[in-house]
Design goal:
The structure is a single chain. A hairpin with a 5-residue loop joins β1 and β2. It is elongated and about 85 Å long. The protein contains four helices and two strands, in the order ββαααα. It is mainly alpha-helical. The model has no long low-confidence stretch (mean pLDDT 79). α2 packs across α3. The chain folds into two domains: 46 residues, no CATH class; 78 residues, no CATH class. It has a two-stranded antiparallel sheet with strand order 1-2.
């Protein structure tokens, strides 16, 4: 027990092994009565979670997403999940021996899906304003692409 602190504290240690094989003793102070190896395992999982949220925030552009309300949090999670799934689906294969680079996957997904989405939005806007365009003497012909067995990849 530390003076002025209501929670009990435990001190533990672990050996950190470096890539060159050297080992260094490190100490951990915790409010949980756990061995050093258990705290290291817990810390690694925590940093994986932190890394995931950092990737979602910065790579997928959610740093300015409003999360002050329950609805804001639900929107954030839905958009983050959608962005993650799109990046995962459209991801380029990483070079042998390398991990998936989420920044590259997000850029590839944007390059793959964004032109299609923008084209559909533009076509919907043209369709909505067809009468005005025809009043101005413009003829609108929108030809929809019909996939066939020859031009579809499965």
């Amino acid at each position: 027990m530390l003076k002025g602190l209501a929670l009990p504290m435990w001190a533990s240690w672990f050996h950190l092994t470096f890539e060159n094989g050297d080992r260094e003793q490190r100490f951990i102070v915790s409010t949980f009565p756990m061995a050093g190896s258990q705290l290291v395992r817990l810390g690694r999982s925590r940093w994986r979670i932190e890394s995931f949220f950092k990737t979602i925030k910065y790579t997928f552009g959610f740093i300015n997403c409003a999360q002050g309300t329950r609805l804001g949090i639900l929107r954030y999670l839905l958009l983050a999940l959608l962005a993650f799934v799109l990046a995962f689906v459209a991801r380029p294969a990483p070079p042998p021996g390398e991990h998936l680079a989420w920044t590259r996957a997000a850029q590839h997904a944007a390059a793959t899906f964004l032109p299609v989405v923008l084209t559909l939005v533009l076509l919907a806007e043209v369709e909505k304003r067809r009468a005005l365009l025809e009043q101005l003497g413009m003829t609108v012909h929108i030809r929809r692409f019909q996939p066939s067995a020859h031009n579809c990849k499965i």
